[in-house]
Design goal:
Length: about 325
């Protein structure tokens, strides 16, 4: 669990918890700052490059059409990196709030699978940009899809290469103990290679090496994320709109680790506000102040700091103490 000290003012904490207690309909809008609390880097990487490629240039349908092997290597690397991270206390706190408050809905811009691994109720979680761990068939007449495929690597050819030192040569006949020590020494130096570095060689993969559709047998599977140039998932947007329109009121919206300045995030803040919602922002950067067209108001909250520390604290009165085993 996170051990950072809280910076939440007692008066803000009490007023927020009082309002949350009386709130029936609550939205949470989550961005990359939530995953940062798990130590997960943004996919754009250092300088926006993955190997020698602009990372954003690999996140397009055209890139997949031209070189599906390279695109799958990029996404397999991202899947592997996400799986090495663990859900942080904020993920578990939101999942627990969903269990205890049926009128709570999480909208996430993150594709890293951490909400799902924290056992967030699927019916109360909408992924605006899809998930690295969803796949679907690219064959036109096949509608196969799969959610929460956490197999790593998803196919053997996509395994992250490793640097395995060779055992030190023995110059003369010797005991089995020394031979074992030489082998163990080599294994101790075994480490993953960083394939985001273009100095590390990776193989050219053929289509046959990539994930294949188990239903039609002809189609290539693709990552279930929203690529640049694609529309956000219509069924997801429709479900969110129905939830918002289902009542005349929204009591509270939590804006966690995102500036919520772009569509559709900004629209959801505005729509919640128009239905009476107060806004609580949880962010490391006070300059990232969402609040829709009118900004934050006097009776809103800005909790500055690590979401992994702040979210469990401000939700504690509703969800209790999180288990140390989470």
């Amino acid at each position: 669990m996170h051990s950072s000290k809280s910076t939440v003012k007692q008066s803000d904490l009490e007023s927020f918890q009082h309002h949350l207690r009386d709130s029936k309909r609550v939205l949470a809008l989550c961005g990359a700052g939530l995953s940062a609390a798990s130590g997960l880097p943004t996919f754009r990487g250092v300088g926006g490059l993955w190997r020698s490629h602009e990372a954003t240039s690999l996140a397009t349908p055209d890139a997949f059409s031209r070189n599906p092997g390279l695109v799958w290597q990029f996404y397999s690397y991202r899947r592997h990196t996400a799986l090495k991270s663990k859900p942080n206390p904020a993920h578990f706190a939101l999942a627990e709030l969903a269990r205890r408050k049926k009128g709570f809905l999480t909208l996430s811009q993150n594709v890293d699978g951490l909400h799902q691994r924290a056992r967030h109720a699927p019916a109360q979680l909408h992924l605006l940009h899809g998930s690295l761990f969803d796949v679907r068939c690219t064959e036109f007449f096949c509608n196969y899809s799969e959610s929460n495929n956490f197999i790593d690597p998803i196919t053997p050819a996509l395994a992250i290469p490793r640097d395995v030192p060779q055992p030190a040569p023995l110059t003369s006949a010797t005991s089995g103990t020394k031979a074992t020590q030489s082998l163990m020494g080599a294994l101790a130096g075994d480490k993953e290679l960083d394939i985001s570095d273009d100095r590390v060689k990776i193989p050219h993969l053929e289509v046959k090496d990539l994930p294949q559709c188990p239903r039609c047998g002809n189609g290539l599977l693709r990552p279930g994320v929203v690529w640049f140039g694609e529309s956000l998932p219509s069924a997801t947007l429709r479900s969110i709109d129905e939830w918002i329109e289902d009542s005349k009121t929204v009591d509270l919206i939590l804006v966690i680790g995102t500036s919520a300045q772009v569509y559709p995030a900004a629209r959801y803040v505005d729509e919640a506000r128009s239905k009476g919602a107060r806004i609580a922002v949880i962010n490391m950067d006070r300059a990232d102040t969402p609040g829709g067209r009118l900004g934050l108001r006097e009776n809103d909250w800005f909790f500055e700091g690590d979401a992994g520390v702040i979210i469990p604290e401000i939700l504690k009165r509703e969800i209790g103490e999180l288990s140390e085993k989470m």
